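Handout, section B. The chain below has 187 residues.
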Amino acid sequence: MKPKTLYAVVVSGAVIGLVASFWETLEDLTLLKNSHAILSCNLNSVFSCTNVLNAWQSSVFHFPNSLMCMTFFTLTIGAGLVGLTGSKLNRALRLSLQGLALFFLGFGLWFLEQSTFSINALCIFCVFCFGGLLAINAAWLRLNTADIIDSPRWHHRLQRSLTSGLDIFIWCLLAIIVAGVMILHFR
């Protein structure tokens, strides 16, 4: 894929995540004002933002997780737009953003596991944020391929895997596994 296409994926994933985390923040503020409020994201007993937002896991660092996500997604949109306009991003910045994206992917996996098995409810906005994170991580991996591995032999193997689409298959497989675990748990 061309770099501009990959930066478009970064921006798209970040926009999805930003909108979802912003809306989740609004719902959290509504809940703070009125603990008995009926939230628009309470779709049923499984997709219950109220249950998720009232759990300690929604404020791991003593402020709403959605605020942290909004900051990350805004930063990612900015970097993605810089790349989308044809400007070059510094290697250290790209790798740092990829590292942050991987952190948030791990955090998202942990949070979805906690939501599924400990809270026993899901937040639809968190699911959208996770989808955006998958897209962002997939694009950063492809954008940073040349800078990730120094060994020519391993770089060639990684490049061959990307050319064959193995990375896309793995990202899709991760999404299917996460969705499958949730479906099996809540059926």
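Note. Helices lie at 3-33, 49-53, 65-84, 91-119, 124-143, 145-148, 152-164, 166-186. Compare this with the example in section A.
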